Amino acid sequence: MSRIRVQKVAEQMKKELAEIVRTSVKDPRVGFATITHVEVSGDLQHAKVLVSVLGSQEEKDGTLAALTKAAGFIRGEIARRLHMRVAPELLFRLDESGEYSDRIERVLKTIHDGEDGGSAGE
């Protein structure tokens, strides 16, 4: 299958997944979750879904467990909404990139503040 088609399917899946998680998944463990990226295999059989969750590690784990449990329902909704005969198998993973970039930013700010403090006394 063409790479462009796979990318289009992934982008449309991302939009639909966000809508499904927001409106249809009724599990109380699903907290403030955002679908950040969907990576679909070339044969459209598997999709890795990256989810960013605001909250503690327990809330993140709970949200991931709830989404994994609801994967069959979500997969059916995706197939119906995208008019696919067979929807990809969904694999949910936490997206830690936001926290990682925040940590890097704090470290850089600390380094920068340290340089400013050292040069002010000279």
Automatic annotation (TrEMBL):
<comment type="subunit">
    <text>Monomer. Binds 30S ribosomal subunits, but not 50S ribosomal subunits or 70S ribosomes.</text>
</comment>
<protein>
    <recommendedName>
        <fullName>Ribosome-binding factor A</fullName>
    </recommendedName>
</protein>
<dbReference type="InterPro" id="IPR023799">
    <property type="entry name" value="RbfA_dom_sf"/>
</dbReference>
<comment type="function">
    <text>One of several proteins that assist in the late maturation steps of the functional core of the 30S ribosomal subunit. Associates with free 30S ribosomal subunits (but not with 30S subunits that are part of 70S ribosomes or polysomes). Required for efficient processing of 16S rRNA. May interact with the 5'-terminal helix region of 16S rRNA.</text>
</comment>
<dbReference type="GO" id="GO:0030490">
    <property type="term" value="P:maturation of SSU-rRNA"/>
</dbReference>
<keyword id="KW-0690">Ribosome biogenesis</keyword>
<dbReference type="InterPro" id="IPR020053">
    <property type="entry name" value="Ribosome-bd_factorA_CS"/>
</dbReference>
<dbReference type="GO" id="GO:0005829">
    <property type="term" value="C:cytosol"/>
</dbReference>
<dbReference type="InterPro" id="IPR000238">
    <property type="entry name" value="RbfA"/>
</dbReference>
<comment type="similarity">
    <text>Belongs to the RbfA family.</text>
</comment>
<dbReference type="Pfam" id="PF02033">
    <property type="entry name" value="RBFA"/>
</dbReference>
<dbReference type="GO" id="GO:0043024">
    <property type="term" value="F:ribosomal small subunit binding"/>
</dbReference>
<keyword id="KW-0963">Cytoplasm</keyword>
<dbReference type="InterPro" id="IPR015946">
    <property type="entry name" value="KH_dom-like_a/b"/>
</dbReference>
